[in-house]
Amino acid sequence: MKNLVTIKALEKEKIDEIISLAKKFEKGEINSSCVNQNLSLMFFEASTRTRFSFEMAGNKLGINLYQFDTQNSSLVKDESFFDTIENLYAIGIRACVIRNRERIIEDLINKNTKMRFINAGEGNFAHPTQALLDYYTMKDLMGSIKDKKVVIIGDIAHSRVAKSNIELLQKQGADITLVAPNYFKDDSIKLNWSENLDEELRNADITMCLRIQKERIEEKIPFDDYIKNFQVNEKNINPKSLLMHPGPVNRNIEISSNLLNSNQAKTILTQAKNGVFVRQAVLNMILGGLNE
Ligand code: CP
Question: Is 48 close to ligand 1, i.e. is its CB under 6 Å away?
Fold first, then answer.
């Protein structure tokens, strides 16, 4: 595996391989094969979980990490992104983890650079390592998710997490329902859509909440309507359902603060923890071959 840009581009077997390698890293059953490789972390959008877990994963693997200082790089002097990448490669960087407001990685790959890339979240398009760590968490806590009812609720239209999760859940044979108001629907996604949150949550095996992506929305958001009809809380959740959220959470908007404080919401921090093992696996697969 040279790059990780989308879940769509991964065969099911490759996803299973990543998950199985992540489990080995969690159990301490395998050593790094990318010690002393050089990796740059390029975050052009805010991040806590993704950035720290890539950093933690890189440290555990013995990788040399280089934070790309977006405000003080020569991009501000109008150097192109491609030229920046080529210069980083010349200096010795062999892979870049990129989070960006727009899609950029595929363009760079198509320009035949030798640099390898990992998508850490591009606009509303894709966030593949989030979907992988979500699947890792589901599989760990539930076993197979084939035919399990997964209800994804909220701002599907602007969510890269939803898009990558949908691609992955489809490959694993889950039964997906999307619950969203009209203003957060994406008609290009041909799946079962519903506006009846209570009914859909009743039989949900997995309940996945999403944050409203305020930073990507220009129109006024009807928060009161959203909270009334689409907030997941202690009254409407199936107590047997696995409760998930990629974070960051906006308390009392997509999920009630009481529910977030409950035992049922502990999975959300488990997701954050599992992000380290999954990112170790991805980094090891992408940078590992370079030491041979
Ligand atoms: N889930 C996620 O991508 O969180 P961060 O934005 O904090 O990285």
Answer: yes
